[in-house]
# Entry
Amino acid sequence: MARTITYQQAIGEALAQEMERDKTVVMMGEDVAGGAGAPGEDDAWGGVLGVTKGLHGKFGDRVMDTPITESAFIGAAVGAATSGLRPVVELMFIDFMGVCFDQIFNQAAKFRYMFGGNAETPVVIRTMYGAGFRAAAQHSQCLYPVFTHIPGLKVVTPSTPYDAKGLLIQSIRDNDPVVFCEHKALYTLEGDVPEEAYAIPFGEANITREGDDVTIVTLGRMLQVAHEAADALSKDGINCEVVDLRTTSPMDTDTIIESVENTGRLVVMDESHPRCSIATDVSAIVAQEAFGALKAPIQMVTAPHTPVPFAENLEDLYIPDATNVQDAVRKVMGND
Amino acid sequence: MPLSKDELLKAYRMMKTIREFEERLHVEFATGEIPGFVHLYAGEEASATGFCMHLDERDKIASNHRGHGHSIGKGCDVHAMMAEIYGRGNGICGGKGGSMHIADLSKGMMGANGIVGGGSPLACGAALAAKQLGTKGVALSFFGDGASNQGTSMESLNLASVWNLPIVFVVENNGYAEATSSKYSVACDDAADRASAFNMPGVVVDGHDFFAVHEAAGEAIKRAREGKGPTLIECKLNRYYGHFEGDAQTYRGKDEVKNLRATIDCLDKFRAKVTSAELLSEAELNAIDSEVAVLIDDSVLKAKAAPIPAPAELLTDVYISY
# Structure
């Protein structure tokens, strides 16, 4: 039975349902409840944007607030994961990965391989990313390409409430370390979400719009932008196929290539910085695997190679928009 | 509480096994046959042994790059360890980890670690799991004077304290972090001084004295197991070899190691104490010496003869499944 809830509520629901189902699932992070040790209310925040509100009330000391010590508590989640728990630890902003990256990429990601297959690290690192909140350079990045680069990590980037719930449930049930990336500007996005628990497999892209003229591959919040552009372009008779990656590691290259073999034209849309991004990653794979199918050079639409600016007009220029996508599509169609 | 005869024999065997393992590696490494880096624990045996004697299958340890002693202490198979160091397919990590990543999670050995300071957060996690799952297990984190400065160490001390985790932090202060003296790099005289800043007991112990280590370790582990929280124990000790094999150790004093071996060796001290107190005989200890020599010899012979990993193993075990 589906009903309309927000991306944020879908995430909270996934957490609650999995914690109910499996007592070894625990949560930790900065102010995932809030109020620890303070005289006012318990669960005062439920996460900085309220995503985890109510969980401390329901699950007590399985929801743990942490001091601001990412390398210790992300590392503790990793160590707990090899010791019988299934932690969901929050890295509040993906931009903070710098202070704890070792525990993620040198420890969690590598145990299974380095220990010859004799380790399981079922940890989920939930983290918030993306621009649009005027939060400026250190709170607005899309750093999933950095995690995608690391063998041993799985990286998940849901675009809709339905995907957020199903992919988070899958992440919690998966026995490998998962970085679950939540776009902060998507929290209020509404969508139909089933009440019951369900899991969406990793490595399965979603074709959200079918079309024969051009393939737009995208992820995260940019899915909304891709659809906006596709709607406008259809009025000019250009029919776009939109492919939502859902997970960058593993990534569904089969669906991408199949689509490009049909349309012959590719635009890759990625909110992250242009160098070594998902845009360059997808483009290179398609150029190698489906070169013969291409009727035109691949076009990439990304943010510029700059930190995220603060001023509202500058940030709005920074974030790729539907006009950028339309320009790229027209270019690839040969009529720019 | 005095140790039983069996425990004394076990302790000596553990220390001797570590010592012979490391001394043999020193010789073999010089032939050029061993790939990569090894960091030898020779001289520090009383620390790993004094702590590990108190641990059982509920307990977990995180270690560092100088991890062979901790691995042996926690019960990792000596043959499998040697094969791993030689990069063979039957190594304890299938030849895919090497000396710095020796691990056996089934024995509660969470891994040696190539990242200085990398183990303490992991050990906090193991302690958290023990607490949440009610296993009554404890976690130990072994790290050095160099690592005691690392942010992860400070953060872990704080987290263990505010969460009241069943953990013991063990600083093995051998006076050197790579080629830098701890007198230069550690701001306080004793790393244990840092404990009170994190609201836990800090204990300094002579790391060459197995009995002193064993007693301090026992108290701290009991404290943790009873839910009374973490302790920081600093073992003052010495390493006989360099930071890594190949390190010429020009930063050490003339005859420094020679004098240490002659005056404070933990195995010599143990032997002197138990024989003069007539707890064990020279013959009993010598018998262990012979058995250990055979074990180490056999492990090297077998490691040298073992096959290297199959090429297909390059691509296995990155993930459990997609």
Notes: Chain A touches chain B through 48 residues (CB under 8 Å).
